[in-house]
Structures are given as structure tokens and as C-alpha cells.
Design a protein that fits this description.
heterodimer; A: mainly beta; 5-stranded antiparallel β-sheet; globular; B: mainly beta; 7-stranded mixed β-sheet; 50% strand
Chain lengths: 114, 114
């Protein structure tokens, strides 16, 4: 059973508009949530994270929102740019006592159209 | 340059022929991990290591071995590869403890087992 789920396998958005990526989780013991971006033939690269005690974290064009009661987080990209076209993975981190493990969602492929 | 390197990047082999994928990091990270990426399943953890001589199983350890004799290296060993181990493999490293748990990923190794 997947503990972290990204229900939208793909998303297409016009350049300049907002991209919203969603992620749901089931385990209340995660202490950090992270978003990774992946281009073809490269490893995932870290984008932004949020602690489980926060509800929002912003870094430039990227904002992550966390709704703990709904066990849901989202990534907003505003404005979307063609270089944002990539696969985005949501990940949740177990506490260090539990091994620092990252559990990933299945990914959402984003296409930003010029 | 801070990085995680993996070799080889591409490998085609046959069932039962032992192989090793190497992973090395130059960031003095305590934590290292191996993941495999399969379509729709995101990245799943195979094995991880919290420090030298300390390794533990992840979610999908069957058919794999690891060792951590030095801090910088964490090779992945397939003693008798099978076609269901055809996948894209990523090595990752991070600091361990009360940080956000951001992991740095290598470029990936695409393995095909015939």
C-alpha cells in the first residue's frame, strides 16, 4: 500500500499560469515533506521542503502548502516557465529514529506550453 | 564540486551474471541510500546506510546486497540478476539527523537484465 500518492500522473499548463501539484499521504509519523524535480537522464534534484509543524513554505516561484488534518500537500509554481517541464516527485521523510527514510509518490509529469 | 557519482550509467547484462553498481559521494555525508525507479511507482528504497558498517533493508531489498566499508562509497551488488530487476537505479546521500533530510541524488544507472 502506497503511503504517499500523487493522483495526477500528468499536468499541462500554459506558460505564465499557475501549476498546482497535489500529494496525499497516510502516515502521520512523517516529519518533513519534500518536492523533487527530475529531468530525463538526470537524478532528482531537491526543490523545496516543509516541516510537519508548518503549513506553508515559500521559495521564489515555489510554494508548498501542508494540510495535516487532510494529510495533503500541494506545490504551487507561479508563474510557470517552459524550464519547469519535468517530472515532480513528492516525498515524505520518516524521523531519524525511523531511519531517515524518504517515501516517494509516483510522480507528476508537468508540461509547460509556451 | 559536491556530487554523487554512479558507475556505470548504462548496463545490459544477462540473467545470473553478478554485477556491481558503484556509488561515491564527496560531501562527507553519513547517510547513503539506493533506490529503484519504475513507472508509476516513484522511487522505492532498496537499502540504506546510516554510517560506516551500518546498513539496513529498505522496502524492496530482495535480490540485492550492499556494503559500507568507507564513508564515501556504497556499492550495490546483484549476485544473480533477474529480468524483474530491470530498472533505473539511483544512489543518494545526505546528512543524518535533525536536518530537513534533503538527499542528493546521483545521475542514475539504467540496468537491463535479459
Amino acid at each position: 500500500d502506497q503511503q504517499v500518492k500523487q493522483n495526477s500522473p500528468s499536468l499541462s499548463v500554459q506558460e505564465g499560469r499557475i501549476s498546482i501539484l497535489n500529494c496525499d499521504y497516510t502516515n502521520s509519523m512523517f516529519d518533513y515533506f519534500l518536492w523533487y524535480k527530475k529531468y530525463p537522464a538526470e537524478g532528482p534534484t531537491f526543490l523545496i521542503s516543509i516541516s510537519s509543524i508548518k503549513d506553508k513554505n515559500e521559495d521564489g516561484r515555489f510554494t508548498v502548502f501542508l494540510n495535516k488534518s487532510a494529510k495533503h500537500l500541494s506545490l504551487h509554481i507561479v508563474p510557470s516557465q517552459p524550464g519547469d517541464s519535468a517530472v515532480y516527485f513528492c516525498a515524505a521523510r520518516a524521523t531519524p529514529i525511523a531511519g531517515n527514510k524518504l517515501t516517494f509518490g509516483g510522480g507528476t509529469r508537468v508540461l509547460v506550453k509556451p | 564540486e559536491a556530487q554523487v557519482t554512479q558507475n556505470p550509467r548504462y548496463l545490459i547484462t544477462v540473467t545470473g551474471k553478478k554485477l556491481t553498481v558503484t556509488c561515491s559521494q564527496n560531501m562527507n555525508h553519513e547517510y547513503m541510500s539506493w533506490y529503484r525507479q519504475d513507472p508509476g511507482l516513484g522511487l522505492r528504497q532498496i537499502y540504506y546506510s546510516m554510517n560506516v558498517e551500518v546498513t539496513d533493508k529498505g522496502d524492496v531489498p530482495e535480490g540485492y546486497k550492499v556494503s559500507r566499508k568507507e564513508k564515501r562509497n556504497f556499492p550495490l551488488i546483484l549476485e544473480s540478476p533477474s529480468p524483474n530487476q530491470t530498472s533505473l537505479y539511483f544512489c543518494a546521500s545526505s546528512l543524518f539527523g535533525l536536518t530537513s533530510g534533503e538527499q542528493f541524488f546521483g545521475p542514475g544507472t539504467r540496468l537491463t537484465v535479459l
